[in-house]
What we know:
Shape: elongated
Radius of gyration: 20 Å
Mean pLDDT: 82
Strand content: under 5%
Distance between the termini: 36 Å
Number of helices: 4
Largest sheet: none
Amino acid sequence: MTQTEIDSMRQRLLALKKRLGDELSELEDAALRPVGGESSGGLSDVPVHLADLASDNYEQEVALGLLESDEQILTQINEALARIARGTFGLCENCHRTISRERLEALPYARYCIRCARKLEGSAPE
């Protein structure tokens, strides 16, 4: 990759990092807000209906799942920025070959070329 392309990728990664940071803040608010009763705006500590409580719990679980996923992506973005700083961005961490431009366009924080990624996914325990 040329220095211009690497700079462009750095800018994309920084923009994605900022967007995810904003989303994480919103998800934390949703995931950590109290469920049911007075804490959620009701008049008593007892939820109005069990279905409401179940719905609130479900929404909170979804928010926690999204929060965890976004945190993992944010970690991968930070690692990609560190690879740019080290001069190893765009190289597969497994085979050390160049990661295709198409793959990096689709997934700018990719650590592996598509061939190694497929191998690693296939060998992952279920």
